[in-house]
Write a structure and sequence with these properties.
- Strand 1 (85-94) and strand 2 form a beta hairpin.
- 29% of the residues lie in helices and 37% in strands.
- The chain has 175 residues and is an alpha+beta fold.
Length: 175
Amino acid sequence: MLPFSNKPSKTNSRSSSRKSLTRETWCGTSTNTVVNTASGIAQKTGSTISSVVFKVGEKVQDVSDTAGLAIIRFTYNFVSEPTKIADVQVAILSPTSVKVSWQTNHPANGKVNYGLDRTYPFDVQSEKRVTHHEFALANLQPDTTYYFEVMSYNKNYVYDANREFRTPVVAGYSK
């Protein structure tokens, strides 16, 4: 019987003393085990139970992220179409910041290279593999033209370059 069954298990005469394990008892038992273990660690180390549980949660998240990334990388072996960038947009957030966004047809990481010229001396990037990419560019100069390119990578590098935007004028600001 699976641990998450909601129905009692069928028993024969040899296993009649065995109790069925329902979702509620399995989750309750697991939760109690985690709480008791965290309490024991907290008492031994002088930490609070919340800090121990948080550390355990971080480790579980690391394992989950690693397993998820391994699954994504494995599935890329079966994708024949190359990654493509589409719908590049710039949204002015303020005279000193903008949001650059774009779409990719496959989950991929993203990067924005930008600057006052086409050498793009500044960048922001993320290793998170997504299909909708958004990056905020901050600490920009008002009333200034910036040049940028967006890049993404999963199985292949792809970029969309030679783009530009102008930050708005601020009243009372002069270059």
